[in-house]
Amino acid sequence: MRILLLGGTGEARELAHALAGARGLEIVSSLAGRVSDPVRPGGIVRVGGFGGAEGLRNWLTGNAIELIVDATHPFAATMTAHAARASAELGLPMIRLNRPGWTPVPGDHWLRVPDMAAAAPVSAETGDRILLTIGRQGVGAFAGYTRPWYLIRTIDPPDAALPPRHEVLLARGPFTVESESALLAQQRIEVLVTKDSGGAATSAKLAAAREAGIPVVMVDRPPAPPGLVEVTSLGAAREWVIDYAAAHRGRTPERR
Ligand code: NAP
Predict the structure, then answer these.
(1) How far apart are CA 45 and CA 235, in angstroms?
(2) Which of 72, 116, 153, 193 to mutate to test the pocket of ligand 1 (most atoms within 8 A of CB)?
(3) I need a surface site. Which of 92, 204, 211, 215 has the fewest CB within 10 A?
């Protein structure tokens, strides 16, 4: 069974690894090609967009894919929507691995906002020295804010318009609570802006903000397409795929 694994996340890499060697499965991992030096999963990897929903549909049929596993980032809403559409149109099964969002604990001061457009004014009203850890694509929403100073942390340099008072810090997680606390203190950060990505790789900043009493502007996830089959853990995704493949073959699942 040929499976398209839409990736670009640590979970997708781990899932590709976890499924490697499972009997009768061939995994093709797909990366968008956004970061200049991506961490590549093992096995077969393709890189670059498909050319919209129609391009994806053609690619899926041309490559005889029988199952789509969407393990893209919780904020990669366009890719998920295209995959859901192609799945419905082609009658191809699809499962989404969507890690749980973060939940506040005592001591957190979170301001939840629905999207990046709302995060910009809310953070500007909350403090003057703002740390943006939202990836390079969302930064444009802050470009018109002239008063605050922004520390913009991204993996690759942002190419959007930037606010006039800023510094770009290029860094790739995972980060530790110690290093995040040091960054907040050294840069005298007053507000942290983040997307509700969930997961452990980038959650240290939340603990550091809590310890320092710094408010966090938390951007909610985009809504998922209706009717999507979703699992929230790597183990559940692996199990689902192996069981599905076994049922498809009409045989007992074989787990490593
Ligand atoms: P997006 O807005 O949902 O997708 C925009 C376009 O990028 C898609 O229409 C597709 O192009 C292409 N694309 C996205 N994911 C792809 C994949 N896995 N393989 C091939 N093409 C893909 O996506 P995004 O938010 O820009 O994220 C891009 C990639 O970075 C994803 O793989 C995602 O998992 C990863 N990532 C995203 C974030 C985030 O915060 N958004 C954070 C960490 C990692 P076509 O229309 O041409 O097919």
Answers:
(1) 22
(2) 72
(3) 211
* Cβ–ligand 1 contact at 77 (below 6 Å): yes
Distances (CA, A) of 74 to 14, 163, 188, 190: 16, 26, 30, 26
Work out the burial of residue 21: count CB atoms within 10 Å of its CB; fewer than 13 is exposed, 13-18 middle, 19 or more buried. Answer: exposed
Residue type, 85: R
Q: Is 202 in the pocket of ligand 1 (CB under 6 A)?
A: no
Minimal CA–CA distance to 196: which of 113, 114, 102, 119?
102
Q: pLDDT tens digit string along 227-256?
A: 999 999 999 999 999 999 999 887 555 544
Ligand 1 within 6 A of 100 CB? no
Give the pLDDT confidence of 66-79 residue by residue, as tens digits: 999 999 999 999 99
* Helix H or strand E segment including 39: none
